[in-house]
Automatic annotation (TrEMBL):
<dbReference type="Pfam" id="PF07635">
    <property type="entry name" value="PSCyt1"/>
</dbReference>
<dbReference type="GO" id="GO:0009055">
    <property type="term" value="F:electron transfer activity"/>
</dbReference>
<feature type="compositionally biased region" description="Polar residues">
    <location>
        <begin position="428"/>
        <end position="444"/>
    </location>
</feature>
<feature type="domain" description="Cytochrome C Planctomycete-type">
    <location>
        <begin position="56"/>
        <end position="110"/>
    </location>
</feature>
<dbReference type="Pfam" id="PF07587">
    <property type="entry name" value="PSD1"/>
</dbReference>
<feature type="region of interest" description="Disordered">
    <location>
        <begin position="426"/>
        <end position="487"/>
    </location>
</feature>
<dbReference type="InterPro" id="IPR036909">
    <property type="entry name" value="Cyt_c-like_dom_sf"/>
</dbReference>
<dbReference type="Pfam" id="PF13385">
    <property type="entry name" value="Laminin_G_3"/>
</dbReference>
<dbReference type="InterPro" id="IPR013320">
    <property type="entry name" value="ConA-like_dom_sf"/>
</dbReference>
<protein>
    <recommendedName>
        <fullName>Cytochrome c domain-containing protein</fullName>
    </recommendedName>
</protein>
<feature type="compositionally biased region" description="Polar residues">
    <location>
        <begin position="468"/>
        <end position="484"/>
    </location>
</feature>
<feature type="domain" description="DUF1549">
    <location>
        <begin position="161"/>
        <end position="371"/>
    </location>
</feature>
<dbReference type="Pfam" id="PF07583">
    <property type="entry name" value="PSCyt2"/>
</dbReference>
<dbReference type="InterPro" id="IPR011429">
    <property type="entry name" value="Cyt_c_Planctomycete-type"/>
</dbReference>
<dbReference type="GO" id="GO:0020037">
    <property type="term" value="F:heme binding"/>
</dbReference>
<dbReference type="InterPro" id="IPR022655">
    <property type="entry name" value="DUF1553"/>
</dbReference>
<dbReference type="InterPro" id="IPR011444">
    <property type="entry name" value="DUF1549"/>
</dbReference>
Amino acid sequence: MPTHGSTSSSSHYMPRCRRLLRTCLIAVAALLTGGAASGAKPDFDRDIRPILSDKCFFCHGPDGERREAELRLDTRAGAIESVVVAGDPDGSELIARITSDDESLRMPPVESNLALTAAEKQLLHDWIAAGAEYTEHWAFLPLPAEVPLPKVTHADWPHNEIDRFILARLEAEELSPAERANPLRLLRRLSLDLTGLPPKPADIAAFETAVAADGLDAALHAAVERLLASPAFGEHLAVAWLDAARYADSFGYQSDQLNTQWPYRDWVVRAFNDNLPYDQFLTWQLAGDLLENPTRDQILATAFNRMHRMTNEGGSIAEEWLVENAADRVHTFGSAMLGLTLECSRCHDHKYDPILARDYYSISAFFNSIDENGMYDHSAKVPSPTLLLPTAEQERELANAATAVRNAEQHLADVKMGGSDRLAAWRATNSPPSKGREQPSTLASGERAQGGSLEESIPDATSPVGGSATTENKNPSPNPSLQGRGTIPDLVAHFTFDDKTSETHNANGLPQVPGRAGQAIRCDGDHGVTFPDLLKIDRPDPFTLDLWLRDVLRNPQPVVVAQRTFGTDVGYNGFDLMLADGVLEARLYRVWPGNAIGVRAAEPIAAADWEHITVTYDGSSRAAGLRLYLNGRELQTTILRDKIQKSVAVSTYGSGTFTLGERFRDRGFKDGEFDELRLYARALTPYEITLLHDDATASDDQVHNDAARRDYYFSAHDAPARAAAEKLRDARRQLVASQEAIHEVSVMDELPEPRPAYILPRGAYDAPKTDETRVTRDVFSEMLPPFPADAPRNRLGLARWLTAPNHPLTARVFVNRLWANFFGHGLSTTPDNFGRQGTAPTHPELLDWLARDFVAHGWDVKRLCRQIVSSAAYQQDSRTTPELRERDPENLLLARGPSRRLSAEQIRDLALAAGELLVDKPGGPPVYPYQPGGDLWRESNGMSPAYTQSTGEGLRRRSLYSVWKRTAPLPNMLVFDATSREVCTISRGRTNTPLQALVLLNDVQFVEAARALASAVAKQHAGPRDRIAAAFLRLAGRAPNSAELALLTDLYQEQLASFSTGSDGAGAAQLTALGETKADEAIPPNEFAALTVTCQAILNLDATIYER
């Protein structure tokens, strides 16, 4: 059987069962790949390397740090230098050590629990005697330009080139292929392998008619083409890729919240149905965002690299999770696309393959430069960077809203342009504002803020801000004055902090200290000053924040102001003002950093001095709309981020709280002091900001400057311009509202400059990072092709390197896996490991021919599927003889057809299809089928979202669309070996347990399916034998033989008698009532129940759940 998961080991002492399994696989593979016959010269790659890799490389392999006795056996130079004398086994220390009777000298050492068999010792002896030649590992050899077809004796058996290779091997083994399978068995096999669904009765009838009219070959060809063209083809093929891509509908850690990534699943289905060439399939997923003018689908495909688990747990460290995310991407890239265990090199050089830790981190550098913070947040739930996926209607609404914004912007500009006469009249009747002195002031109790977009912050004109009085002074002074012209318009609130206690805010016990004017508040780093429901803004809303502060301790990155702040760095959104070592940063964001705008000042503020800070924002959703002022002077800034979409006013825990000096689970403004906080519902002009600082500093040039006066007039006084500005704000709000309903998916988006990458010993994120440990983007040079000189050093260049026509791994790996989809195992039985610990292919020339042919014909996946299922090897009967089963129990020689239990998805979908319950609706959000009693999600984790079972068609969709929660997958899927998809999984194990039969007999989904099947056949057939035969045909794809029909009829009669008695009469009603669909009242309950039980029995038969 194929092994499950990685074959690497993180410990010298591997579990005994795993080691024995791998040793057996290597031994069987060596036998079946033509292991050295007695007296024949051993082949290094086939016979010797597996022994050295399994028994010696852990201590004497590529890992230099772990290497014992400075002995290296993975290279000929290392072996010849010390323990191997070519041509002289008796003079070779290697032979002396492996044959020694002295336990202190014998290799492998006793404590390793490894030992060489007599046959292995003889192979090593014969290899040295023959010259101890080394050859390159088979998977790293260049893909041949051409692979000649082998000659065969029975040339009438092959259907295509595949069969020539299979038959040549069988003839060499003196074996004969099996007969062709029964036509209906072939139809069922094709249908299950190409679509994951059984043939319908109508399909069976049509196929039998076609066989009679046109012959079996023509009927099979038509069936293959029909199945390849079916939408179900992509749905079935997608399952294996989604396992590899670790696709799931939840994040995986802690509370395991649900994500929004299902459009990626639908893209994979479309890609297979559209027969997207495999090289493009890989390129889009690795680097679709880096293609020239990428389409929405090309960007969506990059969600492949965002499918890893994520956390939002308190105390999580962003830097650590950035490293973990990149590590998962490397692991998945290696396993899914290269068939290598790259993850073994995260902590040290690979123990078995020539993959250095430096190689690992060079590849990691390709995946660590996207605009992410490493975690998902408590509010938006879609970690940035993201892609919006509007429906056609939403696209129209979005386009209309964007047009409305552009029109409103133009209208405002036109109003200002046409306002010269109004400006002149205002200037004629209003003298230039003179310089007066600002006095500490506050908004009078009950006074409405002057006509600004933040009036919503004051729930009632006569009630306090946020429900608390805004008065801090019984006799408030006026707002800073433009003398003779009144106060600065659009003031929302002003706080002086002069009172020890106040209903306007909660100082949380923080002390008062002498301030810039009167009293100030000093923060302690753990608490802040909170203002309930103040500054409830979204990104279309302009505002001005103005305050005085002292940065006493020069903290590394304290929070100065934060709005809508909950949780850790990924748990909040809204607006904040930070100090990074004295340098101001202002940000407005939904998810930092990829969905945000932000600026940083070019100079620091003074330490320990009172400084006047002003932040203005114009509502444009552009970083240029954020401006910083220091002591009335605008600061030069650099843009941190300039891409924002959707609302920033998102919160899980209720309304936002405006806070000074602290944020939950963040670094507070320790010993920082605040005074004179003002908020305005408008982006104030530079002159107004100068006046706020100290009107005595407002220079004559500013007062008389035409541009400054013009800006001030249209912003503060001109009624048409202010009305136009309000209309612009409303248009921007509508645009945000239009975006908010659009589905959002996490994707890749490269940073402008690559994030530095370093070798991290033991994989520790906080390992020292120095010039010596820094790495560049590159790939292995020792065993794989060099990186193309003309390729960009980014993920797109990596994709081009991966899909180069002569790449030794890419095509071989995929062809091997697709082969396993049809035969149950690959030509190499370790599809996740083509390295030295993997098994060599049983038919290496066939693997090379298929890979080269695949590339030569445009990486055409459907063509490859057609080739495989059209081969005589695939169409063989699966029955075998005792002698052949003894000689080749795993059918590695392919002397018979495939035989295997169906997958979890196939079994459930087959049951639904047979009962005519299956809804073939494609795509869409995940559905929530039946699960055992109670809420397993909440029972396994109290912080988990509740499981809300679907109704109607949601209970009957294909299993592909069922919700996949990593910490609590659907039990009826797990029992049939579905994976949790927590990590990349290349091949599932296949078990056979009593629990599986119990699920098929008792799980509501299968009971309901059996009842629906009973109803369907009862409507079409009268007698019990005909009904049973019809049910058998739907489930097994063939009619039952006489013995099967007799046994099933007896079962039906027994159940009928039982359900007809008084004691079981209630049982019949209970059985036929399970599930959401209604029982068929046209059939007597006892007959219905008996037929349902009989259908359950058929569902449990090997004939149903096995593909033969």
